[in-house]
Amino acid sequence: MAFSTLMIKRFREPKEERRPWMIWFYDTSKQAIGALFIHFANVFLSDLTEEDPCSLYLINFILDATLGMLLIWLGVKVVSWFVERQQYNYLIFGEYGDPPQAAAWIGQCILYLLIMVFEKTVISLVLLIPGWTKLQELLLDYIPDPQLELVLVMLIVPFIVNALMFWVVDSLIMRKHKQKDSLDLSGSIETPRTVMTEESQVLLSADLDFDHPESDRDISRLQGTKPKVRQAGYQVVI
């Protein structure tokens, strides 16, 4: 259900920039793999201590949605800067070639998974800071029913957090549409230049026509004859 929110996001994209289903699948499947990794990592970490596993799992999710989002954003920016600097075009998030190449998708999945490993490692280190026990007691102690606590921790909270993370991260790793702006900019520059060229050609043609009568007058003056009167002619060159 959380993953299906990305379908809604796709249909909300501008029609001229809407991703084909294949590109959409390549983009979103990276997040699906990352979400599976986070889920099993949280389950594994919640069993390592003697604390209430439900409370610890919930704290992990809250940290993933706050500090984790910041770490994912930082990881995507650093990785994108590095691959663009090294000109690894198929490793740029959202770029798969034309036609789309599965090898590019696999490479980007590996990079995104490494970002998630980095994020989860930092979150695990944060959990080692003393004081989380009191927060765990405050989160779920007011819920008397263990079944309701389980539904809240394993279904409701993951749905809300995952839907939010999927939506935000998809905006980070999808292809950015900058080509249209560059084309518009080049077009706005080229048009005045063309007009100026045409105007200069017209003026140049007029000057050349005026130069001929002057040269005729000079020759006639040397020969002692009257110069012929010529009307100035204009030639428009397009």
From TrEMBL:
TM helices/strands, residue ranges: 21-45, 57-83, 104-130, 150-169
Top-level taxonomic group: Eukaryota
Entry keywords, A to Z: Membrane, Transmembrane, Transmembrane helix
Entries under Pfam families matching the protein: STIMATE
InterPro entries for this protein: STIMATE/YPL162C
GO-annotated cellular components: membrane
UniProt-listed PANTHER family: TRANSMEMBRANE PROTEIN 110-RELATED, VACUOLAR MEMBRANE PROTEIN YPL162C
Name used for this protein in its record: Store-operated calcium entry regulator STIMATE-like
Organism encoding this protein: Alligator sinensis (Chinese alligator)
